[in-house]
Design brief:
Layout (H helix, E strand, L loop, with lengths): L12 H8 L4 H9 L4 E4 L6 H15 L5 E5 L4 H9 L3 E4 L5 H6 L5 E4 L11 H18 L4 E7 L6 E2 L14 H20 L4 E6 L2 E2 L5 H11 L2 E3 L4 E2 L2 E2 H10 L9 E5 L5 E2 H12 L4 E3 L5 E2 L5 H7 L6 H13 L19
Helix pairs in contact: 2-3, 3-9, 6-7, 8-10, 8-12, 10-12
């Protein structure tokens, strides 16, 4: 992957989405090698639209004609219209409906981004159906496709703040969301072995952009004078452009048995220190409460970086972009990450 960072002038949503969907040279070259259409399951989530646009742009630059198709219920029809305006086809329906799933076109390249996190507490049956039953339906429908499947670093549980979770670590999920995500992984692993389906499981934490993410959560609290509880005192984040590029590039590293990769930022940061820097950038004092626990949800992404390249946008740049966005009253999704949650209840 090239070390050249994506475009840096983020003055409005159009510029932001162009940045978030800007493919790397490595990704373009990969699409010259891999053949066939790309199907993105759960495309209407926070990462899906820019990931789909990045795939479309990379395929076009590679000169390899193919369809890029995004699948979701599209409760907001505008999301489908915007994808279609950028060359991404859409298929609208409930993936848990076997008839709808059967109606989807064949595709040798699958990105599985469907899942349920927020609202999982109190709606546990749907959480488990979405996170564990649906993967089995996908694997039965596409046994011969390459599948990259998003999971989460929550499956590790907290680790001492002096270290980061590695792919071979013993898993310790806390709460039904994290347990159901481990269930999702086990289903993909089963079918990777039983049907020789090439799979890569991607444990992500935490992708961030200017409308959503850990840094946005902290910056908005500082801007509005809210208290920032630093009990979850450490984190690592990855700029969403980098997360998208790494995830798509790992289509080339699917395997049977399933391969597993962390997708995470290179820098572990102390939340208190980041709040201090954001306070400087925003000219507002950070109202810190609490004290740091000795452990946190932390992952190391070096394994994936060694294969497809390291993240190109560092933490300082993310903080500068975020502070400027908040200063200009830039649009946000209004959906806190709840990264500070320690009991697994989302």
């Amino acid at each position: 992957m090239s070390t050249q960072a994506p475009t840096t002038e983020l003055t409005d949503i159009a510029a932001l989405e162009s940045n978030l969907s800007e493919p790397t040279p490595h990704l373009v070259e990969m699409f010259k090698r891999l053949r066939g259409d790309v199907l993105i399951m759960g495309v209407a989530g926070k990462m899906g639209p820019t990931l789909a646009r990045m795939a479309r742009r990379a395929c076009d630059l590679a000169g390899t004609p193919r369809r890029v198709i995004g699948v979701a219920r599209f409760s907001n029809p505008q999301a489908a219209h915007e994808l279609e305006a950028n060359g991404v086809e859409t298929a609208r329906g409930n993936l848990l409906d076997p008839a709808f799933l059967d109606s989807l076109p064949d595709a040798p390249l699958i990105v599985y981004a469907a899942g349920m996190k927020f609202g999982s507490t109190g709606n546990e049956p749907l959480t488990w159906a979405t996170n564990t039953h649906l993967p089995s339906l996908i694997c039965r429908r596409y046994p011969n496709s390459r599948i990259v499947a998003f999971s989460t670093g929550n499956v590790y549980g907290v680790v001492p703040s002096t270290r980061q979770s590695l792919e071979a670590d013993v898993l310790n999920p806390v709460g039904e969301y994290a347990m159901s995500c481990l269930g999702r992984e086990r289903i993909f692993q089963y079918f990777a072995q039983a049907h020789a389906t090439p799979v890569a499981i991607l444990r992500l934490n935490y992708a961030t952009e200017l409308r959503y993410g850990v840094i946005v959560d902290l910056a908005r609290k500082i801007w509005t004078g809210e208290a920032v509880d630093v009990t979850m005192g450490y984190a690592n984040v990855i700029w969403q452009t980098d997360a998208n590029a790494i995830a798509l590039s790992l289509l080339e590293h699917t395997a049977s048995p399933a391969s597993i990769f962390n997708i995470a930022g290179a820098e572990v940061f102390r939340v208190r220190d980041v709040c201090g820097r954001l306070g400087e950038l925003l000219d507002r004092p950070a109202n810190i409460v609490g004290s740091e626990a000795p452990d946190a949800l932390l992952s190391q992404g070096q394994k994936a970086s060694q294969l497809v390249g390291a993240p190109r946008v560092d933490l300082e740049q993310i903080m500068k972009w975020t502070a400027e966005w908040i200063r200009r009253d830039g649009a946000t999704l209004g959906k806190p990450t709840h990264f500070e949650v320690r009991n697994g209840k989302f």
